[in-house]
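Check these lines:
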Amino acid sequence: MTPAPEGSAMAAALPRTPTYRWIPLALLALLGVVVAVNIYFVVEAKRSWTGLVAERPFEEGTAYNRVLAQARAQDALGWKAAATLEGGRLRFALSSAVGTPIAGMAVTARLERPVDPIPPVEIALAPEAGGYGAAVELPRRGQWQLRITAARGGLVYQHSQRVVVP
């Protein structure tokens, strides 16, 4: 049997074989989207914060056993610490295991933003009724990591907590 001419009614009735020429183009388009998204992520990663929280992370990591020993020695003291940041004033109270206030310490505080590359704010706290205190003016609202160091002679006590500035 001879094939039906193209313009005839019989040719219109015959089923057409599907053409899949669009599949390679669709795969190329999908691959192009994946490559574009990956390039965007690389550019954003290079432009944003590095994630480093220490200036010398290797040295701090290798000295971690010394940090753990200092933490055990501090826990053995049994001292209790409380810090508040309200109304632009930082207050820090340090008491012994039996609850008596500990005086005569040189107290410094360092406030750092956990995710912003803002320079840290460092202040010295002065003795006041019930502990130590100082006025603080922070450049931004939100969460800050507060690190307080109280020292006297060879004794060093460290306290760290997260504070929120409304």
